[in-house]
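Readers of this paper often ask what the protein records in our data store actually look like. Nothing more is needed to write down the fold, since each code stands for a local backbone conformation. Below, we set out a record of this kind in full and without editing:
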Amino acid sequence: MASGKSLMLGVFFGSVVGASVSLLTTPNSGEELRTKVKDQSDRLRDIAQQIREDGLDLKNQLSKTSKEGAALLRDLSEDIKVSVESWKETIEPHQENLQEHLRQIEESIKELEDKVKENPKQEV
């Protein structure tokens, strides 16, 4: 936010310096000069007010967006947690069955290896 503040100050002071230089280098009567100074002052005040309003709008929008993002992340994490729990419940009844199949496969491989070691020249 510091860079935004610096930008606003730069725009404001640049406008003031530019307006002052243009007013002082232009030959005018006193009344014309006062009118121009007043007009420039009014324009600068309007610009500063608009910058301030835009900055507040941006701040409010960022705050709102961050709150919505946090709420979405909470919802998403809760959905993921529910999905993982559901997956665990779905897998649990089959887990023992899968382990038994793996043991059978390991035993079959072991038996095949033993047969190959006993009879290396014969086909299995």
Q: What stands out?
A: The radius of gyration is 39 Å.
